[in-house]
Amino acid sequence: PARARPASARPASAKQPNRPQARVRPTSAFIAGRAPPRAIHSPTKQVQVPGGQGKVHQKEVKTIASALREIRLHERKLFASEGGGSRPTSAVSRSPAVFVPARSAAITPRRPQSPRREIIKTLQVAKMGLESGGKLEALDEDRLMRVFRAKCLDLRLKATEERRERFMELVRKNSSESTLSLRETGLGALAGAAVASLLIEQPIFQGLDLGGNGLKDEGMTVLAEMLKQDTALFSLDLKSNDIGVEGGAALFNSLKGNVTLTELDLGILSGGNRNRVGSKVAGVMKDMLLCNSALTSLSLYGNGLGVEGSAEFASGLEQNTVLKSLDLGLNGLKDDGTWTLAGALERAALETLNLANNGIGTKGVKRIAQVLSSGKLLLQSLDLSSNKVTEKAASVLGDALAQNSLLQTLHLDRNEITQEACVAFSHGMLSRSLSVLTLSVNGIRDGGAGALAKVLRRNTALTRLDLSSNQIGDVGATQVANMLIHNSGISTLSLADNTVGDAGGVLLSNALLQNETLRSLNLRGNQLHDVTGSAMVAGLRGNTGLTELDVSWNDINYSNFRSIEKLIQEHAAAYRQGAVPRLKKELQRLKKEEPKLAIREAELAEVSEERDGYLAECRKLQADYDRTLVEEAQKLEECEAAKAEAKAEYEQRSAEHKVVKEEFEALEKGKGKELAEQQKKTDRGAVDLGRMSSEIEGLEQEIAKVLEEQAEEEAQHELQVAELRQQCEEQEKILIELRQKHAELDYLKEEANIAAEAAAAEAEAKEAKAAAPIGSPPPGAGAAAKPAAAAAGSKNAPVLAGKAVAAAKPPA
């Protein structure tokens, strides 16, 4: 992608220190200045979606033709934008799949070339100068340039001359005579379609490497169409292409009818994107394993099959007799998935199996050991690295190895094998078939190394042993050195990254003088010093068979190191030079064995004649046996017929006897039933009578209780009524007293008013008298007489009021 210019290279007016610098978006060489390429338009198809329980959905599926139409569309846009008009028809050669510029001088523009036109011309001229070896010479350059242009479209990059040269150089470097390698070239969906079209139109390659690209589901769907038509491709590498459920389903569906592809790799490249086929495609993989008769090697490393997907995958694997190599590392199988898979291994034809990084514990390892010891497994290589193999699992695995006669390679790196676990596992070294064992990055220590060395003294089958990074010290190295003196099978031994000191190093060096089979020894990263270096030099001078020795990352001085390096180089050169004499010696040995071989052939011929006679006699005996068998079968049929008749008669009489017996039993049962029913009725009546009497007694008791409660309630009620009556009488008395007091109070008020009026009248009279002439009657004399009379009449008011109150009181 293009980069933004640094701020120092911009004009002063363009600098904006307070704002972040904007990024320049990458452009495409074919559509510069225009909108991004539109999505690939493809027809609508019915696709079986994994995990949909048989439902068929309408889904957009990209085909080869639709992808190529998209590439052609952008080429048309390019020529329309570069020539000031439409694309000239005389300057192109039309192919059925895509438009490609022709090799003609007519493409030269009449006016100065623009950068885009110059790029296209460079691409056209470069077609004629493509240098490659093998089948790349026969490959159509136009089609390879189509892949390059599609790649640029996928990445939205300019198709510059520099990028084209890098692309072609990478293809030439990685490809071989029979394999087209496009690994890590940045291919996307459109480029995948171009590759598919290339292989369909020119099926000249047996292998295709597309690892480390970005095909994803769209590109994989297009490539799946190619696999349905291709008849030459034997190997397909699709590592780290970010393929998901849809792409995986399309891939395995296309392999159901494919009869040529033998190797398929969907694993992971270091630092690349993982494929994510997952458990949802396990059903499609099962169908593929049932239908496909060509695929011998399958790698699903890191695809997330899981415990759920392992069940369906195992059901297809147990019925497949073609698949020989299977990689299921980093799939989260755990113990349950391994248990299911191990059951299918007994009926499968696998020879190589990788189960690394699956979290397999004791349960899963025990199940694998059970299958190994059964003798039904054809497995020759097993990888259980980076799991959870503990002491119990190691012991069971060692027992299985001692009984198995086919397994040749076993990897147990990066497990939990301790010193005790290795001691329990060591008896598995009695196997006569195991030739490679790796136990690196465990914790077997000196005790585990000593137990292995003790058993390996008598073992001649094991040729490679890796004990690196196991905390082995001088004690363990001493045991290993003693083993090398007696062992005549191990050719490669690694003790790297341990804690072996000079004591163990000197003994290992001395052991080289008595060992003739060891070819490679790795002691890198230990605690060796000059004492071991000097001893190693002496050992190498007496042992000319060792051709590889690594003592780096040790404290050995330069002179010893150079001497060791020089001796190893001399040994390697001598070993290479002695290849012809060794082969001649082996040939002479074989020639000496020719007379024995002739004698053996004669013996085999005699044995063959005897075998032929024996087979003829066996055929005769077989014919007699068959004839006798037929006669016996006829007699048996007659006996069976007589037996059937007798059985039918017996069944008939048995049925009659049964009917009579049932009638007699029915009569007896009828009388017995009547008596039983009567007795039941009597017992039931007695029970009912007792129950009714008890119920009556209960009711009487309840009635008595109710009557007592009612009497108590009535007595309490009467007491309450008496108390209420008494309270009422007291309240009436208090009310009468209050009424009398009120009447007296009214009377007193009235008297006070009358007295006040009289006093006022007297005062007025006095004033009038004082003011009137002598002898005249006082004014108001009549008026004064009225109050007096009223006052006289009011003296009897209290008495009358008391009588009125007494008359108004109700009877008690």
Descriptive notes:
With about 800 residues, the protein is an alpha/beta fold. The protein contains 21 helices and 18 strands. The protein has helices at about 65-80, 115-130, 140-155, 160-175, 190-200, 215-230, 245-255, 280-290, 305-315, 335-345, 360-375, 390-405, 420-425, 445-455, 475-485, 500-510, 530-540, 560-575, 580-770, 780-795, 795-810; strands at about 45-50, 55-60, 90-95, 100, 180, 205-210, 235, 265, 295-300, 325, 350-355, 380-385, 410, 435-440, 465, 490-495, 520, 550. The chain has a 14-stranded parallel β-sheet. Helix 5 runs parallel beside helix 6 (about 215-230). Mean pLDDT is about 80; it is low at about 1-60, about 80-135 and about 780-810.
Write the layout of secondary structure elements.
Elements: E1 44-48, E2 56-60, H1 64-82, E3 92-94, E4 99-101, H2 115-128, H3 141-155, H4 161-174, E5 179-181, H5 189-201, E6 207-209, H6 216-229, E7 235-237, H7 245-254, E8 263-265, H8 282-291, E9 297-299, H9 306-317, E10 325-327, H10 334-345, E11 352-354, H11 362-374, E12 381-383, H12 391-403, E13 409-411, H13 419-425, E14 436-438, H14 445-456, E15 464-466, H15 474-486, E16 492-494, H16 502-511, E17 520-522, H17 530-542, E18 548-550, H18 558-577, H19 579-771, H20 781-794, H21 797-808
Parallel strand pairs: 5-6, 6-7, 7-8, 8-9, 9-10, 10-11, 11-12, 12-13, 13-14, 14-15, 15-16, 16-17, 17-18
Antiparallel strand pairs: 1-2, 3-4
Helix pairs in contact: 1-5, 3-5, 5-6, 6-7, 8-9, 9-10, 10-11, 11-12, 12-13, 13-14, 14-15, 15-16, 16-17, 17-18, 19-20, 19-21
